[in-house]
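Let us work through a complete example step by step.
Step 1: write down the sequence.
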Amino acid sequence: MAGDSTHDIFRFNHRSGYFPLVSSGMLYPMSDILPPEYFESLPRADQIAIETLAYQGKYYAFGVMHGIFNATMNVMWYYNEPIRAAGLEDPFELWKQGQWDYKTLEEYLILLTQDTDGDGVIDQYGMYDPANSTGAIRFLAGFNKVAFAEKDESGKWVYALNRDALINGLNLLHRWRNELQVLGSNPVFNTSHLAGLRNRIAAGDTDYGLVPYPIGPDGDGHSFWTFDYSGNYLPVNTAYPEGLVALADFLFRESDSEEYLDFYINNYMVTRDHMEVYMAGIESWAGEGDAFQNSGFWDVLSGPLGEVVRGEKGAAVAIDEIAREAQAFLDDLFGQ
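Step 2: predict the structure and record it as tokens.
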């Protein structure tokens, strides 16, 4: 706004203000000057991010940012010792055998929720409790591939287009938390992006396994949900867009991400099995995740979804109650 950004290149993730900037007309529409062949030549992870963040039919991000992988892919992790003590098969092996789904996870959660010291009080739960709003949103997106908003055939963003996946996922979380009561503190199963485990590794707490999210009741495969779609951007007042694109393409290359992946493997993975799971995610990730964090959309969703998970409201009722507000938000954000 001060006029001194004419030769700037911005590099940031979508959670750091992308939607406020693009909806205010402050970013340069890159697809106005770059042909489709340019975007098709980029690494797949960057193509996905750019397409996900398209605004009013135009691409605003360009060049290489993610490279060969999106580093914020989420996985499930679990402590090995309680699973061995219960005589259960390693979930990693179940995944390899094609048997890692929500039904199997539920069986594990029931068996692993225990009173381990015999004092009559449950002190070990099967999985963490995603009862807060953000936890529910993250888990649903990964577990049942829930899309809280999707583009319809005309390109319009529509709220909860995949309605069944959202309702069924919410009802299952409600069942686990309130009926079976297998979610709580000191859990065996957790979720995290890989770098989130670094503190455990630093502390020597390395006896854990990794698996993808299990296939949910409406899922068609394993999800490696991500919370970060990053890109390179130019301000709308850029003085020489073609030259800055050339500069960015020279400075930031796909090969740079190979070193970053090596860092991830060497610092955030403990076993070869961990690497196998993560590499499977790199190869199969197709953009699953949610691009609306920090856009204000989660503020509309979070309260009602948390109420469903806590058993305070039915899933279908909650979705219907916020439908008008959620759609109005999307219409306003995208100028539909």
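Step 3: interpret the result. The chain has a mean pLDDT of 90.
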